[in-house]
Amino acid sequence: MRLSLVVAALACCVACSAVAPVPRARPLIAEAPMSGRPTLAPMLDRVLPGVVNISAVSRVRMEQNPLFNDPFFRQFFGFPGVPRERQVQSLGSGVIVDAARGLIVTTNHVTKNAEQIAVTLLDGRRFEATVVGSDPQIDRSVDRIPART
Q: Which CATH architecture has domain 49-61+83-144?
């Protein structure tokens, strides 16, 4: 009797699945046309708009030779006493995590001490960003661009 109940339940499941097919979402990995090989193209079509380019400009103080600290040496060679700085550009990528609020997660070492941060979207639009928060220990930064309207 127990076996007949299991067989009946199994037959019911098979009959129900044949009558009402479950709609499937578009697969993340599909086969490439004409080659039969797997391709990630469907997944990339969905996620690439959320990936952004981050460009940051900052200034760093250049290391000076200890001889530049000697007043005689500076006077003889005519070096000014002003500390020397140079402009550096950092590049990286980020991911939009909340488009409605304009929040992007990126690496902290790219945006650390940045004077200017530019975010470029996949469609070519460019926005100025500000750092909302960062955690140097895990090298993460949350930046904000104008929210999508």
A: Beta Barrel (2.40)
Residue-by-residue pLDDT tens, the chain, 149 positions? 444 433 444 444 444 444 444 445 555 555 556 666 777 778 888 888 899 999 999 988 877 777 777 777 777 766 665 567 888 999 999 999 999 999 999 999 999 999 999 999 999 999 999 999 999 999 999 999 998 76
The residues spanned by each domain of the chain are 49-61+83-144
DSSP state letter for 43: H
How many other C-beta atoms are found inside a 10 Å radius of the C-beta of residue 64? Answer: 11
Using left for φ > 0, alpha for ψ between -120 and 50, and beta otherwise, residue 26 falls in beta
pTM: 0.63
